[in-house]
Write a structure and sequence with these properties.
Blueprint (H helix, E strand, L loop, with lengths): L2 H7 L17 E3 L6 E3 L4 H5 L4 H15 L2 E3 L8 H13 L32 E5 H9 L29 E5 L13 E6 L12 H7 L2 H8 L7
Parallel strand pairs: 2-3
Antiparallel strand pairs: 1-2, 4-5, 5-6
Helix pairs in contact: 3-4
Length: 227
């Protein structure tokens, strides 16, 4: 292969490698392909550890490799500022451009924006609330139809039926539709339903590996243009 072609094959950045700083934490891999659950870990312990930056950087590697990471232990001792700092540092310590920061949600200034449990709103946090969602969709349900939509069949953004399940959650930076999408997102459940409410996850990498070579070649030639 010519030298020029060899240069074109080089990675722009060397992939980060896991350093082992989280080996003391108990975990289970949820599936062989995607997902890791830390069964007893507390985010505050990581955030205030002597080697916090090392642990947060390693956590970024694990999230990138496993697709999604769950913390089973209750994390409600985290303040809003700590939650934002945690999310910001995971991205910052894993190579995010210096000029970038936490995403400002487009609904932050919307009059219908749901406040957090303390009654306040935050430009970097979007509150997912099933009761608020029902009020929002109620105003949209009858548009273009004589009968209102059956809200029990409306899907919420986390895969839960809005009228059957009651939950309350804070989410940071889940704006993958943006021209410059978020690299990490953090979801904190404040109130969980008695049953159901599971979020479904899938690995785009695994899908790509399993599709036929002709389909893969077709997809490789596609480009996306932001509107």
């Amino acid at each position: 292969m010519p030298a020029a072609d060899q240069d074109n094959q080089k990675l722009r950045y060397e992939p980060m490698k896991y350093g082992g700083s989280l080996d003391h934490l108990e975990y289970v891999d949820v599936t062989p392909i995607i997902g890791r659950e830390y069964t007893k870990a507390k985010i505050r312990d990581i955030l205030y550890a002597e080697n916090a930056e090392e642990q947060l950087r390693d956590l970024a590697v694990i999230i990138s490799e496993r697709g999604v990471v769950f913390f089973r232990e209750n994390q409600l001792d985290l303040s809003v500022d700590e939650l934002k700092r945690f999310t910001d540092l995971v991205a910052k310590l894993s190579g995010r451009p210096k000029e970038n920061g936490l995403h400002v949600h487009p609904l932050y200034r919307d009059p219908g924006n749901t406040p957090m449990g303390n009654g306040e709103t935050d430009e970097n946090i979007y509150v997912i609330n099933s009761d608020a969602a029902k009020k929002l969709y109620k105003t949209m349900a009858g548009k273009g139809a004589k009968e209102p939509k059956d809200l029990s069949r409306e899907w919420h953004s986390d895969g839960s039926y809005t009228t059957q399940l009651k939950f309350h959650a804070l989410i940071i930076s889940a704006a993958t539709f943006e021209v410059c999408p978020s690299d990490f997102s953090c979801l904190l459940m404040e109130e969980t339903p008695v049953y159901g409410g599971d979020t479904l996850w899938c690995s785009g990498y695994e899908i790509y590996d399993r599709i036929s070579p002709p389909m893969r070649q077709f997809l490789d030639g596609l480009t996306a243009t932001p509107l």
